[in-house]
Amino acid sequence: MALRDLIQPRELLYPSNLLTISRILLLPATIYYMQRSDRRQRALVLLAITMLTDALDGPLARRRGEVSKLGQILDPIADKVLIDSAAVMLSRTRGFPWWATGLLIFRDVGILLAGLIVLRRKAHITTAASSGKLTTLAMTIVALLYLAGGPRWGKPALYIALIPFSLSFVQYGWRFLRIMRSGDK
Predict the structure, then answer these.
(1) Which end of the chain is more exposed for a tag (fewer CB within 10 A), N or C?
(2) For residue 40, what is the domain's CATH number?
(3) Closest by alpha carbon to 33, among 48, 49, 44?
(4) DSSP label at 184?
(5) Do 83 and 108 contact (CB within 8 A), yes or no?
(6) Per the domain annotation, does 185 fall within a domain?
(7) Distance CA 78, CA 185 (A)
(8) In which domain, by residue range, is 106 found?
(9) Is residue 161 a part of any domain in this protein?
(10) What contacts 145, CB < 8 A, 6 or more positions away?
């Protein structure tokens, strides 16, 4: 599938895709404020806003009939970059465990690479698994709690979030193998 087949210029103006793009554009400011202890409140608000765009973009696209290939590609990338960047910053500044950050990055790089392989070999865009969406929600809550109250608030939520995280790891792996084994293009 060629890049020109994925990006239709009009899709850049879909409200749902604009929300996804805004999430990407808000990332530098969010990360900047996350590293400053005197700006933690601002970081908390920005992180909440960026993740709210994630909650809104998919339903908006479906309601308006504007589900696009561009959105199907940009949305998961934006989610993963935001959550993984937040995890790195929280590990550096708020006691988020580095092992959890490593697992998140490992999982997300694997999902993105598998998605690229499927796109290249099967000309198919894989969509988020239900456990993946639940993991994004759970990790958002974890990030907000770590940002607001450090490990005391965030650690219990992290351990609960490991349940959908583990399920998504298995679900994405199983789906990748099934797609690659199928004879379909």
Answers:
(1) C
(2) 1.20.120.1760
(3) 44
(4) -
(5) yes
(6) no
(7) 27
(8) 12-180
(9) yes
(10) 153, 154, 157
